[in-house]
């Protein structure tokens, strides 16, 4: 009885986890795409108007948000791991993405601090 429930639950959970992880990955990609294009248009606008160029904070925030979605996808992927090798790879990916997020947040803070001292 319990064994049957576990098998049925896994059959339900794995596809849901895969769809959710893929959706979160896609949202992260879309955020990077939109943030990059917004930054590009801002660069072009600053060059045309001959204004100082400062897009680090805006682009950094988009990348940081995208990384959060992608990290969420990686966490959900832990549900569908089949062996220790997949777990090791997933762990490395999570660590790399976490380091990237910390670096991006650090750069944003430095840039915001620099911008506030220049004004």
Summed up, what is this model?
By secondary structure, the chain is mainly α.
Question: Can you walk me through this structure?
Answer:
There is one protein chain. It is built from 3 helices and no strands. It has 119 residues and is an all-alpha fold. It has one domain (2-118). It is elongated and about 70 Å long.
Protein topology:
Layout: H1 2-49, H2 56-77, H3 84-118
Question: Which descriptors apply to this entry?
Answer:
119 residues, mainly alpha, 3 helices, 0% strand
User: Cα distance, first to last residue?
Assistant: 69 Å
Order of helices and strands: HHH
Q: Provide the structure class.
A: mainly alpha
Low-confidence segments, given as residue ranges, are: none
How much is the radius of gyration in Å?
20 Å
What shape does the CA trace take?
elongated
**Could you tell me the strand content as a percent range?**
under 5%
What count of helical segments does DSSP give? 3
Helix percent reads over 70%
């Amino acid at each position: 009885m319990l064994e049957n429930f576990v098998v049925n639950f896994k059959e339900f959970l794995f596809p849901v986890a895969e769809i959710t992880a893929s959706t979160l990955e896609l949202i992260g990609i879309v955020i990077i795409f939109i943030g990059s294009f917004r930054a590009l248009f801002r660069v072009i606008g600053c060059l045309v108007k001959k204004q100082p160029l400062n897009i680090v904070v805006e682009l950094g925030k988009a990348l940081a948000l995208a990384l959060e979605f992608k990290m969420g996808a990686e966490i959900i992927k832990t549900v569908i791991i089949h062996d220790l090798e997949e777990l090791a790879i997933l762990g490395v990916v999570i660590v790399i993405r976490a380091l990237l997020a910390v670096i991006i947040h650090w750069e944003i803070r430095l840039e915001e601090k620099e911008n506030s001292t220049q004004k």
